[in-house]
Amino acid sequence: MVIVVTDAGAQLSPVDGTIAGMTRPMSLRVQLLVLQVSIVLVTVVTAGIASSWFQENELREAYKNRMVHVAESIAQMPAILDAYETDDPAATIQPIAEVIRQASNVTYVVVTDAHGIRYSHPNEDRIGKRVSTDPSVPLSGEMYVGTQTGTLGESWRVKVPVFDGDEVIGTVSVGMLESMLDEALVADTLQLVIVLAIAASLGVLGAAWATRVIRRRIYSLEPDEIAALLETRDAMLHGIREGIVAVDDEQRIALINDEARRLLDLDDEHYVGRPARDVLESAVLDLVGEEDADERLILAGHRVLIAHSDRVTVPSGPTASVLILRDHTHLHEMLRELEGVQSLAEGLRAQAHEFSNQLHVISGLIELGHADEAVALIERTNGGGALNGDSAHPGIADIEVSALLISLDARARERAIALHIDPESALSDLSGEPDARDDVLTVVGNLIENALDACELGGSVTVSIRDDDGCIVTVSDDGPGIPDRLAQRIFETGVSTKTSANGRRGIGLALVRRIARRHGGDVTLVTEEGAGSTFTAVLLNVAARAPIGGGAS
Question: What is the pTM of this model?
Fold first, then answer.
């Protein structure tokens, strides 16, 4: 299915399907090429103009130095100075000036007296006549450099005074036509243009090559396609229910989605680019770099997570280890509740079987005419059973904790283990604090389940729950105790006295400690090998209140 959305007045072109009246946007390849070529051309043209300007200044400076040298040399020549004292100075000065003019490749060399009357000139008809430009500057004893228009045309000239001692007796003017300077500049500029044209051509070819490389690196995608892919990726990563953390080969965070932040209890700080060891807990960081690690249970904060790591490879090479995290906390609680329900059902079936046997006995006694014995049997069994009553203990006012204790009692009976609740136990209703209630349920459930697992047939478990100052849960068993080699590490993740399978053991006690510490308390162990264990968990900031619906007797 193809859906085309247009506005009310738009019409589709029957040729290519574009909207009539609208031009197709320029492709990224063309944009990159035009941009780079423009940059190259602007740079080359600017460099050419600047080079031409510098070259013109250097050319004028070189000709100025030549003309100054020629003019000063003539003004100081003894033959020229001696000629001023003769009756016909031009006869001596004109040949010398012409030889020097031709040898130095200048346009003219003009020598005058103190009144500006010429003694030399490329056009001999001008000799004996006054110069056409103002000679006052050199006659004042100063040098003149500039452009003036004389009898030969506009020229770049130098005028110097001729001294006889301290007296100025004449001037020497040396110049070149501006047209000759322009010809020389054009010749040099032509070479410069050729070089710049070659540079521009190479720049355009380089721009085309760079454009092709860039297009290949971005898989020939257009900007709007890249933006759409990025938006789609962000929507997908931040919308899925699994936490995703990508760590690159330099052990830095490359990506982390919203669910991963929630599961790892991270705030909204920007984590991308930071070292993974500064962001992830050790249990999570240990999975980084493992090749396709199997799913395992890990403890992150107060959550039990199912995590596994995959090594991701792209055409440019290995780039990241991707951690996929799923919240197992609620599933863990539901499985525990399901096990409790199953235990209750099994307990009910056991009691039904027991009552059925007792009914057969009562029926037999009545048939045999022993009515008194039947009544005595009924009295002995009346009110018995583990499932009667409103709660596990009158002091336990919280219905969910009470239900958990009843379920665990049924499971203990099934295993032939006695579960005793301390008569002085007291716990107020926690329905107003659902988070605190969940934490208390987790602590009580894990400690009692571990105690039941530790007990042997015929053993016993004692439970005490008090909320005098926060919530204090104490669970003791008469099992074999915890070996000394494990007692110091029993609260670490993955450490357990039971057989571990796929990392699903060694979570409960570590979770209990984290919950207790999160509530400002801790959990302690007193054990002696062969003499049982006692765990005491303290949750200080679980507020103690007067019991609702019951209290300790």
Answer: 0.49
